[in-house]
Amino acid sequence: MSHTSSRQAFLSMREFLGLGPEDEERLTGFLPRIEDRLPKITDRFYALLGREEQLAHFLEGRLETLKRTHLEWLRALFSGEYGEPFFERQLVVGQVHVRIALDSLWVDAVMNVLRRDLLAAILDVAVEEAEALAVYGSLVKVMDLALMVINFAYNEHRLQLIHQVTGMPEALIERLIRVGVGSAGS
Ligand code: HEM
Question: Is the pTM above the cut of 0.90?
């Protein structure tokens, strides 16, 4: 997946999910009530990663920095700004994880943990269930979009690797992956 395709895919999926002004207002409006809960979610997140044998070594010597950037990332989910800078930021987050050679499956899996922890926090502070449902509905649109973009970075990296190894043009590789070998030449 090239950078241009990633951006287009992001815009299409944002439209498909219907992430719009209502979600933006709902999430920014909810931030003051949930922000106190976010540091605990970050702490739990890194405690979980630290207990996992295959992941603990990634955290050595940089836990405090990681916690700070992770907390900023969590807050940004409620920023109401889900345009180009959001796309570029998530792509960088993906690239950082590609660079450390973290298997993308881990990112997919731990996003689930974050979804559950955020839902619990929302339920805790919302005035009624209907509000919690609405806030969580908006939040998962943003989180799932973020995860898609993080995965785009992995896809871009795979595309570049295949290009380097085979010398095939990136556009052709992308097409082969998208439509399958059988119909790529047509
Ligand atoms: C939902 C999943 C995850 C999110 C949202 C997330 C978020 C972030 C963010 C915002 C950064 C800072 C990026 C930057 O420097 O601009 C980061 C860096 C990092 N993350 Fe994650 N992360 C996730 C999963 C993981 C997992 C599973 C690990 C495994 C231990 C991990 C390890 C790291 C490390 C080691 C860095 C620093 C890399 C470097 O600066 O060289 N992350 N992450």
Answer: yes
